[in-house]
């Protein structure tokens, strides 16, 4: 997350990698075939960060997604 101050208030905004992780982690498994992501706009840095988040999460579901969808 990054914090941004706007009008005297602090907002915490997820990085693209964290936002993708959260979306996939919270989605029911049967909904994956309906999801569309354009990974051409996902930088190498974001891909590395996503991989790191998945590894730290120790989630079997997310490990499978990383293995099969983000080769």
What is the alpha-carbon Rg in Å? 14 Å
Choose one word for the global shape.
Answer: globular
Q: How would you characterize the largest beta sheet?
A: 2 strands, antiparallel
Oligomeric grouping of the chains: single chain
Distance between the termini: 25 Å
Instruction: Give the % helix.
Output: 40-55%
- Give, in spatial order, the strands making up the sheet with the most strands: 1-2
Proportion of beta-strand residues: 5-15%
What is the N-to-C order of secondary-structure elements (H for helix, E for strand)?
EEHHH
Throw out a few tags for this protein:
globular, 49% helix, 2 strands, 71 residues, alpha+beta, two-stranded antiparallel ribbon
Description:
With 71 residues, the chain is an alpha+beta fold. It contains 3 helices and 2 strands; from the N terminus they run ββααα. The protein has a two-stranded antiparallel sheet with strand order 1-2. β1 and β2 (9-13) form a beta hairpin. α1 (16-26) packs across α2 (44-57). The radius of gyration is 14 Å and the shape is globular.
């Amino acid at each position: 997350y990054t914090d941004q101050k706007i009008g005297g208030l602090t907002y915490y905004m997820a990085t693209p990698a964290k936002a993708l992780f959260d979306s996939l982690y919270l989605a029911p498994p049967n909904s994956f075939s309906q999801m569309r992501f354009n990974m051409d706009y996902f930088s190498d840095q974001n891909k590395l960060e996503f991989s790191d988040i998945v590894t730290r999460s120790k989630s079997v579901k997310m490990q499978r997604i990383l293995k099969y969808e983000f080769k």
